[in-house]
Amino acid sequence: MVAGLLAATIVSSGAALSGQGVIGQLPGPEANRWMEVRLGIAVPGEPFRTGPEFGGRIGSGPALSLRGGATVWGPLGLQIGLSQYRNPCETDGCGVGRSWRTRTLDIGVRGDHTYRGVQLWAFGGGIFPWLLRPKTGGGTVQNRVRIAGEAGFGVRLPVTGRFALAPGLRYTSFNAVFDGVGGSSVRLIVLDLGFHYRF
After folding, report:
1. CA-to-CA distance for 180 and 20, rounded, in angstroms?
2. What is the CB neighbour count within 10 angstroms for residue 194?
3. What is the pLDDT of residues 35-87, one digit of tens each?
């Protein structure tokens, strides 16, 4: 429901801005490559929120992604990027005052579609996650890297020339398995804003 309300809000807002002439027009089809910096917040979902290993609460934290891609067929393109999330521990059970740090290599397919004058985007693909979590008594432990999944959607609001803003929502899910200790089911809902450039 939250995702649906967000989608409806950003689509209607984009349509209103477009109608008022506040935002510009997208560059032509020759601009088929793009780069993007995304900043936002990563909200942990169950069971990661409760700290499956230690029973402590994991909080929301900052999210940063760097991505790029190119159109390969019609509205579809390939994308690749790097992401980082920091989720603080909020109780004594999981390393209070310290953060669970996730880094991912992101590879996927992204598509663009125009709906009532608003440029929509969506993507899905695989991620290779590295999770560093606090250890009892100090230090950190890293998971064994395995491929997992991610999906997202949003809108692209042209600002000027080849620049655009791209608010969106995405969902990342993976099971972090550690040598010699129990695993952690990580679920992250990321709300962020992309600064998008096409060339």
Report:
1. 59
2. 22
3. 999 999 999 998 888 876 666 789 999 999 999 999 999 899 999 999 999 99
pLDDT digits (tens, 9 = 90+) for 113-172: 988 878 999 999 999 999 998 876 777 888 888 899 999 999 999 998 899 999 999 999
In sequence order, what are the beta bridge partners of 115? 118
* CA 14 centroid distance within chain: 20
Question: Distance of alpha carbon 81 from its chain centroid, rounded?
Answer: 10
Instruction: Give the predicted TM-score (pTM) of the model.
Output: 0.80
Q: Which residues contact 135 (CB under 8 A, 6 or more apart)?
A: 95, 141
Q: Which residues have a Cβ under 8 Å from the Cβ of 186 and sit 6 or more positions away?
A: 44, 48, 102, 129, 131, 172, 173, 174, 175, 176
Residue 111 to residue 147: CA distance in whole angstroms = 22
Q: Contact at 8 Å (CB) between 133 and 95?
A: yes
Per the listing, tokens 């600002």 go with 159
Question: In this structure, are residues 116 and 10 in contact, taking their beta carbons and an 8 Å threshold?
Answer: no
User: What are the beta bridge partners of residue 163?
Assistant: 160, 197
